[in-house]
Design brief:
Layout (H helix, E strand, L loop, with lengths): L1 E6 L3 H12 L6 E6 L11 H4 L3 E4 L11 H13 L13 H6 L2 E2 L2 E2 L1 E5 L3 H9 L2 E3 L2 E5 L2 H16 L4 E4 L4 E5 L4 E5 L2 E5 L1 E4 L6 H10 L4 E2 L3 E11 H4 L10 E4 L5 E8 L3 E6 L4 E6 L8 E11 L7 H15 L6 E5 H5 L19 E3 L8 H17 L9 E9 L3 E2 L7 E3 L10 H13 L2
Parallel strand pairs: 1-2, 1-13, 2-9, 13-25, 21-22
Antiparallel strand pairs: 3-8, 4-5, 6-8, 7-16, 10-11, 11-12, 14-24, 15-20, 15-23, 16-17, 17-20, 18-19, 21-23
The protein binds flavin-adenine dinucleotide (FAD).
The site of flavin-adenine dinucleotide has 36 residues, from helix 1, helix 2, strand 3 and helix 12.
Amino acid sequence: MKKMGIVGFGAAAIGFLQGLIESKKIDDYEIVVFERGKDHAHNTISGVRMDGKIFVSRGMGGELDIPFEVQYKIVELYLSHSGYRPTLKERIDPIEYLKSFEKDGKKIEFGESFADDETYRKFYDHGFEPIKAYFFHLGTDVLKDTNNNLFEHFSSFKNVHFVFDTIVEDVELGSKHKVITNKGEFVFDELVVAVGRSGHRLMDRIKEKYPQLVRENYYVDIGVRYELPNHVMEEFFDMYEVKVRYKTRTGYMCRLFCQNPAGKVTLEKYEDFTTVNGYSDTHHKTQNTNFAVLVTTRFTEPFKDPTGYGKNLAKLANILAGDREKVILQTYGDFKEYRRTKRLGRVQPTLHEDSFILGDANLVFPSKIRESLVDFIDNLDRVIRGVAYFDNLLYAVEVKFYSNKFCNDVVEHLHVIGDCSGWTRSIQYATSMGYIRALRL
Ligand SMILES: Cc1cc2nc3c(=O)[nH]c(=O)nc-3n(C[C@H](O)[C@H](O)[C@H](O)COP(=O)(O)OP(=O)(O)OC[C@H]3O[C@@H](n4cnc5c(N)ncnc54)[C@H](O)[C@@H]3O)c2cc1C
């Protein structure tokens, strides 16, 4: 039997183990799963201990192309291990089948963005690409069962051994791969690294030792956090998320995402600069909705530092705001007219006044980014009347950095999967990536 080491027991590892079971390759290996969490009962499977929304979408959750058939399978895996059972016998329409799952007489909570054809068409006809997504909400209360059941499911295989309370500190890659933990060293024929975002220390170590495993990143998303009155966006509140992409007249792709109905704008502080973000607080509703409008900026050789580019624009906004921990706030009307904002209109900011300065974001954005933002917002106003009101607010700068991606075809018998690979950022995509990788073994 070959020896396999799996580092981390989260969503990606769950997918990988399930893939091994379904392909029957599991019998070929003696498997050790290292997990730094104390034990499975203490909710250590961080991927599934969260809110537990499992999405089905081709456009959100990761930068991989995951076939719908795999995504349905993953939803079913989580539902069935959470105690839900199908009430439909036949799986003619996979979404209807999954929607039929219930537990103790209660249907699984389900949501769909752009469910209404007319809304979809409205966006589509104005050049937007609406990102469709379905979600199944397991709910925090059942997640403990999900963890337990999945753990029982995998540990029922005699050749699968879980080692909890163990931190993998380093790996040494070779003809066999060595795993160095705080409790000793182990050697494997096959190594799976699935440590999620919380495993960044180990990933930094691997990147430093094996830079050939890391793919060059050429992208950064730069733009603003946009804030407007709730009533403008109200008709979309029952949609999980209004997420659309649009190719602007500059040729740059611009996107709307991370919508927070009745939410708040907040600062995102980094070591040496500050950007903006948004959130919704279930207890404190506000009069405003906020969302990100970001332009995807791609660079080509010889420039190789998109992250530095984004950081420097954010820093410039902080410099103009007169403080490393302040951002620029401007009305959309003033932004369009190249005027510094001196007075606000009908929309009051939800970000605390100590955190911003009224200014002119035109001094920050290169014109190609600025033109893309204006084109996007003006065009969106044709679909959602009121988005381009002169006194709506924009906060600069919002930046989304792309994480470095790991190549899985450089070192033999090594599989870096899930969020730590840089390719995924959701339970669905992390689990699916693991699942597909195992099928290809
Ligand atoms: C607050 C919050 C809420 C979220 N809600 C959702 C949601 O509703 N829906 C959704 O799709 N996504 C959600 N996500 C994202 C989702 O949790 C991740 O995308 C997903 O879990 C990634 O799976 P993974 O296997 O890559 O990592 P994880 O699931 O994080 O698993 C990694 C595992 O590795 C272990 N580990 C880390 N380092 C080491 C080490 N050195 N040695 C040994 N073990 C180690 C960790 O303890 C962990 O158990 C949420 C994330 C957060 C933070």
